[in-house]
Write a structure and sequence with these properties.
9% of the residues lie in helices and 53% in strands. It contains 3 helices and 10 strands, in the order βαααβββββββββ. Strands 1, 2, 3, 4, 5, 6, 7, 8, 9 and 10 form a 10-stranded antiparallel beta sheet that branches. The protein starts with 19 loop residues before the first strand and ends in a 6-residue tail after the last strand.
Length: 215
Amino acid sequence: MADSPELPESPVLPTPPSGGGRVRWRRFAVLTVPAVAVTAGLGIALAQGALAASFAVSGQQFKVSAKSLEGQGFAQYGSVDVNAREELIPVAVTAIREAKLNSLCQSVVTSLPVIGEISLNLTAGQKTPVEASNLFVDATQLSGDAVFRNIEIGRDASTLDKGPADAQGMQDLFAQQADTVSITNLQQTAWATNAGTFKLSGLSMNISKGKKECF
């Protein structure tokens, strides 16, 4: 039997400064891969009750964008969502204790028989920022330019303590957290969003034919 190929050694991450640090989000998000890639183990934990799904997600993802996001108490770790068919969906959970978003946009496109594609678009926070507390976003894609303060990369997901009280993952899984986070040109694709409170100033919602998304 041929020897198994040796895996490359994991790169050593530099210790972040104690003050603020600027991180290109596209590179930073790559660090969530070790946590998101453990779908099988997460599925077992979910079945055993170690993880709690708050609700069954729909079969559609939605897009969210914002001109900027300012958050206090940031945490990120891997988890799974479950749909009504009890299928497991790996996600990266981004949790923020207190968040403010400017120029928020949310869109979802549905394809209906005969009618074709229908778009639902929601906008808010054009003048006064949208405010959210204990915000959880279960996403599969996120991009933007981010600045973190006192960031901890590679922390055990079960020991997170800077985000919302319930923002913790499974033991031994990769996670990261920071005192504050600031993201500009935020774009994300998600399965679900939860918040303790969600205050949308200047809320506007419309439905139209065709495909009209936030990005």
